[in-house]
Amino acid sequence: MKLDVDALRYLSKEDFRVLTAVEMGMRNHEIVPAELVDRIAGLKHGGTFKVLKNLLKHKLVHHDSSKYDGYRLTYLGYDFLAIKALVNRGVFASVGRQIGVGKESDIFEVATEDGTVLAMKLHRLGRTSFRAVKSKRDYLLHRRSYNWLYLSRLAALKEYAFMKALGEHGFPVPSAVDYNRHCVVMSLVQGYPLVQVKQLENPGDAFETIIGLVVRLAEHGLIHCDFNEFNIMIDDNENLTMIDFPQMVSVSHRNAQMYFDRDIECIFKFFQKRFHLSLQDDRVEHGDVGSDVEDDGRPSFSSIEKSAGSLDKELAASGFTRRNQEEIEKVHF
Ligand code: ADP
Ligand code: MG
């Protein structure tokens, strides 16, 4: 999706007031009745209705009159609210080009006042899994606030909390700068996703480091669950950075072993196929990946699990609650 932020400059205080009113109405309504928007915004002389027309023109809201005259935010409208909040807070001053389209996100470069370039990830939960989300609605229906805004916001909160905690524990992750709504701001990683790399000077070293990361994560109590060549960045000096954390789970998750083995398997398969690394590689056989290994050379989850740390529990205390985790798992798994 194109993010035309030029419109940001043309939007007035009233425009944002009404946009925020639509957002507030969405806590209880999938489509917010126009009168309710008007009541929340509290503009004089029917001003709300004129503003809504303007917002509609800029595609910041969607008009729906199938049941009653109402509006909902579009992704773009939600993007603008988050961007505006972050700009007001001085986190960045301008939005640049799009650098990534993930399964459930859009990533842009942003620049601070002093010209530092950062990365901004806009979560779009429900873009691909909307059907899955719908079928799980029964569970979520009792939460009247449930909708894609809420889920995208949860994903951003989780990503920010995990990125921060992992960074503090010495994991190679982007540094977490700030977040608002469904938007996470982080340092810009130099390099490319591993999937784009055709040749490596030391594939064995990279392999070892990556498997070591999966093991060390588990030792801290966490499993990435989407650890693959798309979510590992590598630079020209073959330094690695891991990204993309909204689907992480605790080692005490009922399917933890399966997720752990799957992450490991992805890495083994990729290095075998792309760099022709032999699974009988000495380093793997002799356990230099930093843990016990099974007969097939894979690190053993059960031996790690026993002594796992409690980063998962620390995170539950950081504002991203257990209940939030359950809600987000309904979408991802
Ligand atoms: P998704 O959850 O949608 O897969 P990712 O976090 O994996 O989103 O990001 C998608 C792509 O955007 C990545 O593969 C990468 O190319 C780019 N990207 C994400 N974060 C950064 C960052 N901090 N710096 C540079 N590029 C990034
Ligand atoms: Mg990804």
From TrEMBL:
Reaction equation(s) it catalyzes: L-seryl-[protein] + ATP = O-phospho-L-seryl-[protein] + ADP + H(+); L-threonyl-[protein] + ATP = O-phospho-L-threonyl-[protein] + ADP + H(+)
A GO MF label: metal ion binding
CDD domains the record matches: RIO2_C (cd05144)
Cross-referenced InterPro entries: Kinase-like_dom_sf, Rio2, RIO2_wHTH_N, RIO_dom, RIO_kinase, WH-like_DNA-bd_sf, WH_DNA-bd_sf
Alphabetical UniProt keywords: ATP-binding, Kinase, Magnesium, Metal-binding, Nucleotide-binding, Serine/threonine-protein kinase, Transferase
Pfam families noted in UniProt: RIO1 (PF01163), Rio2_N (PF09202)
EC number: 2.7.11.1
Coiled coil (residue ranges): none
Entry-linked Gene3D superfamilies: Phosphorylase Kinase, domain 1, Transferase(Phosphotransferase) domain 1, Winged helix-like DNA-binding domain superfamily/Winged helix DNA-binding domain
CC cofactor: Mg(2+)
GO cellular component: cytosol; nucleus; preribosome, small subunit precursor
Annotated ranges, domain RIO kinase: 64-291
GO biological process, any: maturation of SSU-rRNA
Metal-binding listed as a keyword: yes
SMART domains cross-referenced by the UniProt entry: RIO
Class of enzymatic activity (EC top level): transferase
Similarity comment text for this entry: Belongs to the protein kinase superfamily. RIO-type Ser/Thr kinase family.
Protein name from the UniProt record: Serine/threonine-protein kinase RIO2
